[in-house]
Amino acid sequence: MTRILQLSDTHLMADGGLHAGLVDTTALLRQVLAGLEGIGELDAVVVSGDVSDDGTAASYESARDLVGAFAAARGAGTVVWAMGNHDEREGFTQVLGPTRSVHDLDGLRIVVLDSSVPGKGYGHLDAGQLGWLREQLAPPAPRGSLVVVHHSPLPAPTVLHEGVALDDPADLLAALEGTDVRAVLSGHYHHPYAATLPSGTAAFVAPGVANRNDVLVARGRERVVRGSGALLLDVDDAGVRGTFLTVATPGDGEELFVLDEETVTRIVAEVGLPAAAP
Fold first, then answer.
1. Which of 74, 125, 229, 273: disulfide with 207, CB 3.0–4.6 Å?
2. pLDDT at 62
């Protein structure tokens, strides 16, 4: 059995800055990790993108130190980091390492992709990166593979996230066809989500640490509330099982902000998929 804790969308700021002017995400990450103290032994911790919100080296250092200490205390010798659309390559690579990477967990391979597009919110995987992915997956791993990519190939749960989704998930799915990939791990949606891809491969979206999206909001609007979670993955010969974890933190459920349809449309036009712009 391999046990992996997946965190996502921590959105850390330098010097205790407030995400969206409202949430001290560094303090919140500390609270979430404290809430996960009883999780037991782990083999790895995966952070699936939007590690930072301001792209500063200081924010990445906080993530490295806080998550690294938590992982080490639970026997996890591997911490895996992925780029998200809010991350900045310079700070990320300076502190956390390459934006694409491959890790081995006693025969279970983890391949990390970089779906970020500088200055934009949507995701993209170009032909070069998909070719690299095929090369990494060409030789089967003894216990199969997991792929980590911030932008999920699963359909988005809100209009805003539809506009900042992965631009062509079919390309990723084609690259996975016929490989030993057992699950795709993503973030970005700030909401727990699990489904089976057409190939039969599992796909998981971990809840966010920074906040939670209300997917029951009226279509076209975006509502964000306080709420944090994580995903615990158990991987063995029988399959990949994911357990979504809700971590109690102060103010759970409190509304942080609501974006009206006009604001959502403007954001999508500025940072969203080119085809989604008016």
1. 229
2. 97
